[in-house]
Design goal:
Helix content is 30%, strand content 21%. With 424 residues, it is of the alpha+beta class. It has one domain (2-419): Nonribosomal peptide synthetase, condensation domain (Chloramphenicol Acetyltransferase, 2-Layer Sandwich). It has a 6-stranded mixed sheet with strand order 8-14-13-11-9-10, sandwiched between helices. The chain has a 5-stranded mixed sheet with strand order 5-6-7-2-12, with helices on both faces. The longest helix is centred in the middle third of the chain and has 19 residues, at 222-240.
Length: 424
């Protein structure tokens, strides 16, 4: 069976660059070991239960008007790999997740690496096993692959991994509140730091922080606190590096899919952009900024629009050969680079599944995601929470920032997140 590429998949396919892989990295830490044959069986069956995950790009002539996904009954390649213990095993697995894109020509476009953490140091919670999932972002996104992993955990351990009910949110307004900054101005860029190498590609740092406190019944959410912390972090960073004051725009993925077994697998999030004027980020009245941000983000989430906007829908209309549309897409992307948002904040939120593998393996202690950080943004912030802890990933382009820059940004983020708490 072959299905046409959706708009998001086609745009990503057109803009792929092997030098800067568009991979999604998911990392799960477990307290106990995993049995290799049993996990391979559970993961393969989970892929089969979510058939949209078992697919490859269908071959076709150059003049075809659409790319297509060809669904397969079995994996073309073994998707699971096991790495033995070693002091650098986890770091090496993370590096592979950022540098090696699973090809679209072999089903599935996902790779799962299981890392034995015996002998590792500096790993939060001293877990025994890490699962590193690498996803080709042309085909799938993080929430979809987390759904597949939840099914694999249930098949492996026999425990119920049904999602918890989503939290209730205030009813959003129908349009952005008055005073929202214009989304048409050229946004600030992340000021260059001190790159350690001129090579393309991404680097990553992950950490664990306490979830920020907020008063009961507050009009804002943790996502709004993360948004404000991200905006103020980049304002602080740019000021330190002498960059001109410009408005910030932060891309925020919104996912309306159900989290149960009926969840559509693929790239299912839509992107909205949250603008901030320079003056409002210089304020000391953080509660007022949080309330203003909450109104803004709720209004943007409520807007019904195509995933990448109406322009992308028009650009992918199958009226000319797909290779011609690809050339036009790449040209427009280069031309629009100065208007690309400053950064991307992807807040997965509370992990809805127990990710309980049963027995001595147990349930997940930490879950990290990271999104591609290709220029011109060059930096992405991704967060998730489990057991009252915030799992934060900063991912950046090697040509923009270096490891010391990543550590400084992490310190700034932790500071500004703390200032969003009540009473500070």
């Amino acid at each position: 069976m072959t299905i046409p590429f959706p708009v998001v998949d086609e745009i990503a396919r057109h803009c792929h660059q092997s030098a800067e892989p568009e991979t999604v990295h998911i990392e799960i830490h477990l307290p106990g070991p995993l049995d290799p044959p049993r996990l391979r069986k559970a993961f393969t069956e989970a892929l089969q239960r979510h058939p949209r995950a078992l697919m490859r790009e269908a071959a076709g002539p150059w003049y075809r008007r659409r790319y297509g996904w060809e669904l397969t009954a079995e994996p073309d390649v073994e998707p699971v790999r096991f790495s033995g213990p070693g002091g650098d095993a986890l770091r090496a697995a993370r590096r592979r997740a950022l540098e090696r894109t699973p090809p679209l020509t072999a089903s599935p476009p996902i790779r799962l690496e299981v890392v034995d953490l015996a002998g590792e140091t500096g790993v939060p919670g001293d877990p025994a096993t890490a699962l590193i999932l690498t996803v080709n972002h042309t085909a799938l996104d993080g929430p979809a692959c987390l759904r597949v992993l939840a099914t694999a955990a249930e098949l492996y351990g026999g425990r119920d991994n049904s999602p918890t009910a989503p939290p209730t949110r205030p009813q959003p307004p129908e349009r952005p509140a008055p005073g929202t900054p214009s989304g048409w101005s050229r946004p600030a860029r992340v000021a260059p730091g001190t790159p350690a190498t001129a090579d393309l590609g991404n680097e990553l740092i992950v950490t664990e922080l306490p979830l920020p406190h907020r008063p009961e019944g507050a009009a804002y959410t943790v996502n709004d606190q993360l948004m404000v912390a991200t905006a103020r972090t980049l304002t602080h960073w740019n000021r330190e590096h002498g960059a001109a004051r410009r408005p910030l725009r932060i891309t925020m993925p919104v996912d309306d899919r159900p989290r149960d077994a009926t969840m559509p697998i693929g790239n299912g999030t839509r992107l909205v952009e949250v603008p901030f004027a320079p003056a409002e980020l210089d304020t000391d009245d953080i509660p007022a900024l949080l309330r203003r941000t909450a109104v803004r983000t709720r209004a943007l989430k409520a807007l019904r629009r195509p995933q990448l906007g109406r322009g992308a829908t028009l650009l992918t209309a199958p009226v000319v050969p797909v290779v011609w549309r690809g050339a036009a897409t790449r040209g427009l992307r280069r031309a629009a680079a100065p208007w690309t948002s400053t950064t991307l904040l992807s807040n997965i939120g509370r992990i809805p599944y127990p990710l309980d593998f049963g027995g001595e393996t147990g349930r997940a202690r930490a879950v990290w995601f990271s999104a591609p950080a290709r220029l011109p943004r060059g930096l992405t912030v991704t967060t998730a929470s489990t057991a009252g802890r915030l799992h934060l990933s900063l991912r950046w382009s090697r040509t923009l920032l270096g490891p010391d820059d990543g550590a400084r940004l992490l310190d700034l983020f932790a500071h500004h997140l703390h200032t969003t708490e009540a009473g500070t």
